[in-house]
Design goal:
Helices cover 0% and strands 59% of the residues. The radius of gyration is 15 Å and the shape is elongated.
Length: 123
């Protein structure tokens, strides 16, 4: 079984920082792009940031210059450093990745979501 587990959420004041982690475990052959999403109360889930296996990144306009995504391929872990947090960043943050699982020649792709971690930005 392959899973993604997020951690690092919590309550932070406006202007503060948090670092989220997303660790993949299980029978992992390879992970290509990994994505962070968020869903605020009453709103649709939105893509926040993406990082490819070789480190190329992309961000939603709303977080550019404040958030930074990174990954440690050896640890199958991706991070989301969030700075200058605003109340509108309050949401449940999820990671998602298409993961190649198994061993050759029996490799298959699974679409995996984490369970989410809550970030609350409030004074």
């Amino acid at each position: 079984q392959v899973q993604l587990v997020e951690s690092g959420g919590g309550l932070v004041q406006p202007g503060g920082s948090l670092r989220l982690s997303c660790a993949a475990s299980g029978s992992i052959f390879s992970i290509n792009a990994i994505n962070w999403y968020r869903q605020a109360p009453g709103k649709e889930r939105e893509l926040v940031a993406t990082i490819t296996r070789d480190g190329h990144t992309n961000y939603a306009d709303s977080v550019k210059g404040r958030f930074a995504i990174s990954r440690d391929n050896a640890k199958n872990t991706v991070y989301l450093q969030m700075n200058s947090l605003k109340p509108e960043d309050t949401a449940v943050y999820y990671c998602r990745a298409p993961i190649l699982t198994g061993t050759p020649p029996s490799i298959r792709s699974l679409e995996v979501w984490g369970q989410g971690t809550l970030v609350t930005v409030s004074s």
